[in-house]
Specification:
single chain, 657 residues, alpha/beta, 5-stranded parallel β-sheet, 5-stranded antiparallel β-sheet, 21 strands, 39% helix, globular
């Protein structure tokens, strides 16, 4: 039976009670405790900085050349926090409620409430670090709206919030490196977890420059390795983002939670051809001021400027008047797909909708003209002033769009379409963020815990920093307090020998295949199966076919992949092959999980489960649980269920109308 270790007592007191009664490690003992952290994005860098500050001996690993290169840097729009600076009715409870509802009632209440509680501390921490959040004219921190809420709680730094937050965490991390509390291992990839007597005690890592395998001991191991969206090949993730660390943990006994829960982001630049290796996200913050529409006439080939206002369908405003363009991501994505599938899509591919800033430019221009006492300003001047305001708020995003598409989004509407972005699924963890393997933790996007079946925009950065700065220092100490008598285990221990041999055997096997097809060939084939049959819309037949197709693709991969170069050298193609091998197994599990979940939930639309009007139909009676999958051997998995109990936020059919 899964034990989530949720503390007793009222929801709003659980975390305070936990902090007040958890075990502590005294400073002298912390200096003897070694902690391994894999991944140095927001969750990993903040955890390494915090634990180093506390006095633990930390080893931090990243496969990039610097922790600054983590994919957290790509986040654009903002970070949520229940500060209520706008005095518009926000509160810890409302952030908690919006998050549970936005996740379609498939998240664990206690974890989400803790996240909402510590959200305000994150902003204070980051401001103290010097993170340059946007500010109002008078110097107060600025906020904007994001999908799934009716308040303004999102703090931001133009369209580069992730970059600025990561630089803050990176600075804190580098301070600990300079003090000798943290040792950084860049260009290293974790390829195995080492367990001794049922506890995680270290890792096997490969030096990506030399190809050498290394053994590292730790009293505990923290995986902060992000999500697995690249299983679809085309996604908004960096090309290096992968599932390998989490998958190696799964094969060592860590349960994988809700693997089929992937987020489709509604505002991405559409696919332009087979040459692409990734997709580009346009921040959800653009929905704050932009209006989304399609022509009312099917297969309309006119330019957007030639389509009069009365012939435009602002379909989100029409279907969801209470939230309009700020419905949650899953609702906006599904609505865009429905319009395009019905023949109303725009652009050459007809797989796009318009995101239009004309109204915002006019509105901001009039406000700016009034500020300057220019009450008779001409339309041209209003447009000029409005563009200046929009450029100040969103300029780098508009510039990025212009460079990629060759179109000026100040003059013509952007074209957007949904794309794979984030993964709500991940390693199953309890309230303390420990996986089902003792001493092995998962933080940030690598775990499943906070977002249910759909993540609200601007909550990923919030979760990563909450886990690293404000949760793991308490929960890890509670575990290590019982381990202070354990001396560092030599890496000559048989468990390390066996783990390294397993990794070496796998690498040798990959290099010995010498087939005819590239790694990308298999990755692209897997991605197409996943998008077509386990993407925004799924059905029983398609998922059953996908499982068979992926198993066949696994066999073809292990008999016909071609990896150039040598084993003991810099070999990016070998790195990629190992990651794709893991994606092939994960993709199969995702389809099995999606097949088992016979309900529409979040962005996961089961065609057999829909309301008469085509809206998603959730099935609380049969599926109000976390799917936690245990690896039992090749193509074999056992499902464990963690029932979701809602004491405060009672499930209802979501309504954004």
């Amino acid at each position: 039976m899964l034990n989530s270790k949720i503390p007793a007592g009222p929801l709003e007191h659980k975390w305070e009670e936990y902090k007040g009664h958890c075990k502590l490690v005294n400073p002298a003992n912390k200096r003897n405790m070694e902690v391994i952290i894999v991944g140095t994005g927001l969750a990993g860098a903040s955890a390494a900085a915090s634990l180093g500050e506390l006095g633990y001996k930390v080893k931090a690993f990243c496969f990039q050349d610097s922790a600054r290169r983590a994919h957290s840097i790509a986040a654009q729009g903002g970070i949520n926090a229940a500060k209520n600076y706008q005095n518009d009715g926000d509160s810890v409870y409302r952030l908690f409620y919006d998050t549970v509802k936005g996740g379609d009632y498939r998240a664990r209440e206690a974890n989400v409430h803790r996240l909402a509680e510590v959200s305000g501390n994150i902003i204070d921490q980051c401001v103290a670090q010097g993170v340059p959040f946007a500010r109002e004219y008078g110097g107060m921190l600025s906020n904007r709206s994001f999908g799934g809420t009716q308040v303004q709680r999102t703090f931001y730094a133009a369209g580069q919030t992730g970059q600025q937050l990561l630089l803050g965490a990176y600075s804190a991390l580098q301070r600990q490196v300079a003090l000798g509390n943290v040792t950084m291992y860049a260009r290293h990839e974790m390829l195995e977890i080492v367990t001794i007597d049922g506890k995680a005690r270290g890792i096997i890592a490969r030096d990506l420059i030399t190809g050498k395998l290394e053994r590292h001991f730790g009293h505990a191991v923290l995986l902060c390795t992000g999500g697995y969206g690249n299983v679809f090949y085309l996604s908004t993730n960096a090309m290096g983002s992968n599932v390998t660390a989490a998958w190696k943990a799964t094969k060592k006994g860590a349960y994988f939670g809700n693997p089929c829960y992937t987020q489709i982001h509604p505002t991405c630049i559409p696919v332009s051809g087979d040459h692409q290796s990734k997709l580009t996200l346009m921040s959800e913050s653009l929905r704050n001021d932009g209006r989304i529409w399609v022509p009312k006439k099917q297969n309309d080939t006119r330019k957007p400027a030639d389509i009069p206002e009365e012939e435009r369908d602002y379909y989100l405003e029409r279907r969801y008047p209470a939230f309009g363009n700020l419905v949650p991501r899953d609702v906006a994505s599904r609505a865009a797909k429905e319009r395009c599938d019905a023949g109303y899509g725009v652009g050459s591919s007809k797989q796009a909708v318009y995101l239009d800033y004309a109204s915002a430019i006019e509105r901001y221009g009039k406000i700016e003209a009034n500020k300057r006492q220019m009450h008779d300003a001409s339309p041209a001047l209003i447009t000029k002033l409005g563009k200046e305001v929009v450029a100040e708020k969103y300029g780098n995003l508009f510039d990025m769009y212009a460079k990629i598409t060759g179109e000026n989004p100040y003059e013509v509407p952007m074209r957007i379409y949904p794309a794979v972005h984030y993964t709500m699924g991940g390693l199953w963890v309890d309230y303390e963020l420990m996986t089902s393997v003792t001493g092995l933790y998962a933080l940030g996007e690598a775990n499943f815990s906070d977002h249910g079946a759909n993540r609200l925009g601007a909550s990923a950065l919030m979760q990563g920093l909450a886990d690293g700065y404000f949760v793991i220092p308490y929960t890890l100490g509670n575990y290590l307090a019982d381990d202070i008598r354990t001396k560092a285990i030599p890496t000559t221990h048989p468990a390390f020998e066996e783990a390294e041999k397993s990794v070496r055997d796998t690498l040798n096997k990959l290099m010995s295949i010498k087939g005819t097809k590239s790694v990308d060939y298999f990755h692209k084939k897997l991605g197409k199966i996943m998008w077509d049959k386990c993407g925004m819309a799924r059905n029983e037949q398609g998922l059953t076919e996908a499982i068979d197709e992926i198993i066949a693709l696994q066999k073809e991969f292990w008999s016909d992949v071609r990896i150039p170069g040598e084993l003991n050298e810099f070999n990016p193609e070998l790195e990629k092959a190992g990651r794709v091998a893991d994606f092939l197994e994960l993709g199969e599990l995702m389809c099995r999980d999606a097949l088992n979940r016979r309900e529409s939930c979040g962005g996961h639309f089961r065609e057999e489960s829909q309301e008469d009007g085509g809206e998603a139909k959730r099935d609380d009676e049969n599926f109000s649980y976390v799917s936690a999958w245990e690896y039992k051997g090749p193509n074999q998995y056992e499902l464990h269920k963690e029932p979701l109990v809602f004491e405060v936020c009672k499930p209802t059919q979501r309504n954004y109308k």
